[in-house]
Design goal:
alpha/beta, Rossmann fold, five-stranded parallel sheet, five-stranded mixed sheet, 15 helices, globular
Length: about 375
């Protein structure tokens, strides 16, 4: 059985000393995992039979970089049960795919939700948010179903429950779901003053480049060649969620594409999920600050960074000015503060991405083959 001391020791091994709110979350998460029945059903007891203090979920919210995900992921990794963790965009894609093939009926959302949840005892949503009324209806019915099945749920968010679906035109329609979250979940506010992603040392090998000049072009070429061979260094057209994408180059693990093709063009989070599943890293080239002032373009960059970060993909950026400067004081996209926080970590030496892991595995195979 997991204990709070086990979690604290695992965090200490990563140089993290939990603050008061993080310790509160650890205690709540450990108790939640302990409430899962060792066998049978989704989560054992149904919500109506739970004692008042044993809630069915834990909702961790706060500003970016306050340690929500690292605490939740540490407990999640230790939990010995049938569990599932996924990012919000990935969940929406899966649900919509199932809905397309689900026969017509009085409660298609409930039926698809039950199928999706079948066998899951512990469910973790990272970066839970609601900005769209259609997503709100889907999530409301899904949470109804999960709670009725007794599934234990962990949500991390930059928003307090009352801050979900902030659009005043639709917020009131989401209040029943917000009230259900407040009843069924222990809500913990990560209110630390420090964003842990800022202030770290930059990675030894440069990841963000500016300006867009011959030096940057040469550095990107050498970066691509470091992971891929000369034969992959040529323009190509590939598929992203079934739609063509013109790329500078595409190897086995690293994709090199221009910002205009990826974010200025009209694309969705589905494109970025597909790319993150095909490649371990992305060179995002020729970013221009003037494009970032356009709200749809900025929102696509937010989606792209979210998805790459969640999948621990490598990200290299070439911009006409330092990307943090280009993004400073912009408006027009949801969750931009989270993007800035994540970019700070993604350029740091502490960010361990899948591209280097894949490259190491390839080198080991070559050594064994020799």
């Amino acid at each position: 059985m997991i204990g709070a001391a086990h979690v604290a020791n695992a965090l200490a091994a990563r140089g993290i000393e939990p603050d008061a709110r993080q310790r509160e979350a650890i205690d709540a998460l450990v108790a939640l995992v302990a409430s899962i029945a060792p066998s049978g059903g989704n989560g054992g007891e149904r919500a109506s039979s739970l004692p008042a203090r044993r809630r069915q979920g834990v909702y961790c919210h706060g500003l970016p970089g306050r340690g929500k995900s690292v605490v939740v992921d540490t407990v999640f990794d230790m939990a010995a049960c049938r569990k599932r963790r996924l990012h919000f965009h990935e969940f929406l894609r899966e649900m919509n795919r199932r809905l397309v093939s689900e026969p017509r009926g009085d409660d298609r959302l409930g039926s698809v939700s039950r199928q999706w949840l079948d066998g899951t005892q512990l469910l973790c949503f990272d970066e839970f948010h609601v900005h769209d009324i259609a997503d709100a209806f889907l999530l409301g019915r899904f949470l109804d179903t999960a709670i009725s099945l007794g599934t234990r749920i962990v949500l991390t968010s930059n928003y307090a429950p009352q801050g979900l679906l902030p659009d005043p035109e639709f917020h009131e329609r989401f209040l029943p779901t917000i009230e259900q979250i407040e009843r069924a979940f222990i809500v913990i506010h990560f209110d630390g003053a420090r964003d842990y992603r800022f202030g770290g040392e930059h990675a030894q090998a440069q990841r963000f480049f500016a300006p867009l000049d011959a030096s940057t072009e040469g550095a990107l070429r050498q970066l691509f060649l470091r992971y891929e061979g000369d034969e992959a260094l040529r323009p190509t057209t590939l598929s992203a969620a079934g739609r063509p994408l013109n790329a500078r180059a595409a190897g086995a693990a690293l994709l090199w594409a221009n910002f205009e093709a990826l974010c200025v063009a009209s694309r969705s989070h589905l494109d970025y999920l597909d790319l993150a599943e095909q490649w371990h890293g992305l060179i995002l080239d020729r970013v221009r600050a003037e494009w970032l002032t356009r709200a749809p373009v900025l929102q696509r960059l937010v989606w792209l960074v979210d998805i790459l970060y969640d999948r621990k993909r490598a990200l290299f950026i070439a911009c006409d000015q330092p990307v943090e400067t280009a993004l400073a004081d912009l408006a027009g996209a949801h969750d931009l503060s989270r993007t800035l926080s994540r970019l700070a970590e993604m350029r740091s030496s502490t960010y361990r991405h899948a591209l280097d892991a894949a490259n190491f595995a390839t080198q080991q195979q070559k050594v064994r083959g020799a």
